[in-house]
Structure to design on (698 residues):
């Protein structure tokens, strides 16, 4: 894989994602733009709600760039949310303070008639405008990552009406009426390809598919509602944008991460914090670059515990193509100085 | 393993747990006594709270026996809760309607001084009295299962103060001060051995360790806070009660289930609904009997989807030592007639 890496260009993260093992692996962190940063909170306090921040290009550009200025990460990730896709489809989505997202749920095939992918690009035009602004402002060695939620994970919010503890409504629909439920998944496959294509056309160089709730499904349902739609998205994207690195992040997939890596066609796999490093090296990294996987709570804890685990990750995975990241998003109580310590460890050993 | 199975006795589940492959595998279901049963709700409505039900022997006996009368399961499981152990240690535990358990949290080594394992058996005397009552009332072919939560899982409730979404308080304590946090784990190892021994002395024939939240830990922490204390509990129990079957249920362990099965000494492993059946057969069942793993939501859905998955589980796992169960507890909205359909499938194919 190293050969193809050399022709990609000079941005370090693109070299790693093309298969090159790097002496100093690139680093970015999921949710690196966010509430743990005082400069983010300063922007956030002047907007009415979270979606306004996502949909106001100059603000989305600003908060996307903040962690790049502070830490010099190897990639910026568009400041946005996976629920802009249901919004783009016409579902009512609101973010209430301290309560998380609230959606008017869709729970049957009949409910799907209210959703329309045709105006998605128009409804999300300000997102792509933000992408253009970020792409123009980034330092030349820093890559821009776009993203979407995977159909299964986005569907959990659309069907449950928000975050869920047990995901019983969506699982019951999927188990009782898999053909009907698949119409929602199909709609999300189309919308996700469209949304990611628009981001790529506006300037993102890498995309990541977040499948936060992949891990709650039994194997048969995982294959049908996680692997199969992801494979269709990857195929659709690569047809339109050959060579774009596609990072799949099937959180909680455990054992099934291997099938996911082999069968979806994603070009890179993101590892959650629970993923065994030995398994990741021996069974995943032999086939494709890996990204991960420090527990975000270790970043809150900081100190020797964080340093030891970060070094363990580096020593296990940096012999192959590897991007350092967390195993899930940064949490708000993270001290910003711990992030600097982590960057120093990854950069300087 | 089959040889040892034959000498154990005639109760079918004890034969399976001793290693015998059964043409008709035994079946019981986690949380088989509970709110989905009208006869349970009739008892429950006359008691002030959930703990009163656990601590009133004649009521605990009655609700434990209800699903045996209705379905003829191969095992009864003591009606109780994993949080009786913190209660037995002197922590304040309450169950509030619709809110789940609420505990006065322990969050430091200093907080541990309020907890005392010495009076545990006395504080939980009514639990063991219930065990004696159930043991006396069970049909001769039905075995009695006792249980406890694993130290890590019980600690999550003790430290977070109830159920948690992100388990950040306990993980931060464990990461920042592993030696201090281990004192809580050590205390729970002692209390768990004591509580399970008392149940065995009162008449339970099998014990299960529920580790509902095993799956949230990175590998190093999983080894330290899940595998190591479980190994100590198993060793302590087998010293006092040689030959007692000990079912470990490390929910969400995924890949790490194999290390758990090999290193803890549990004699049986419970599989969650996310566990791949092929992996369970090829990597776990070759070493020890397995139990599981129908998604409880498939039991709510019922019909063809449930039947197909139940048959898939049976055809994959009943060639070796196997007990049919769910992958997690029955949920309250389960139609009781679906449970009967499942029992019929397992019994009659």
């Amino acid at each position: 894989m190293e050969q193809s890496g050399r022709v990609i260009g000079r941005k370090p993260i693109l070299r790693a994602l093309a298969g090159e093992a790097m002496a100093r692996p690139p680093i970015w962190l999921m949710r690196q733009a966010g509430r743990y940063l005082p400069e983010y909170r300063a922007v956030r306090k002047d907007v009415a709600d979270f979606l306004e921040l996502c949909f106001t290009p100059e603000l989305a550009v600003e908060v996307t760039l903040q962690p790049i200025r502070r830490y010099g990460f190897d990639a910026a990730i568009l400041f946005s949310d996976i629920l802009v896709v249901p919004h783009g489809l016409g579902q009512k989505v609101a973010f209430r303070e301290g309560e998380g997202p609230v959606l008017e749920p869709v729970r049957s095939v009949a409910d799907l008639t209210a959703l329309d992918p045709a105006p998605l690009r128009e409804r999300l035009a300000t997102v792509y405008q933000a992408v253009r602004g970020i792409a123009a402002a980034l330092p030349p060695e820093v890559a821009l990552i776009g993203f979407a939620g995977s159909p299964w994970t986005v569907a959990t919010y659309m069907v449950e009406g928000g975050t869920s503890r047990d995901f019983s409504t969506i699982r019951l629909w999927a188990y009782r009426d898999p053909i009907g439920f698949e119409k929602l998944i199909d709609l999300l496959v189309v919308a996700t390809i469209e949304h990611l294509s628009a981001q790529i056309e506006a300037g993102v160089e890498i995309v990541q598919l977040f499948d936060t709730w992949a891990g709650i499904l039994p194997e048969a349902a995982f294959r049908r509602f996680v692997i199969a739609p992801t494979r269709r998205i990857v195929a659709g994207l690569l047809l339109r944008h050959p060579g774009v690195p596609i990072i799949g992040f099937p959180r909680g997939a455990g054992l099934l991460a291997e099938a996911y890596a082999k069968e979806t066609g994603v070009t890179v796999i993101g590892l959650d914090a629970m993923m065994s490093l030995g398994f990741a090296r021996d069974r995943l990294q032999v086939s494709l670059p890996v990204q991960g996987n420090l527990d975000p709570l270790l970043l809150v804890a900081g100190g020797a515990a964080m340093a030891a685990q970060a070094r363990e990750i580096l020593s296990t995975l940096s012999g192959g193509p590897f991007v350092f990241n967390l195993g899930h998003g940064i949490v708000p109580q993270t001290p910003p100085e711990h992030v600097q310590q982590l960057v120093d460890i990854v950069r300087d050993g």
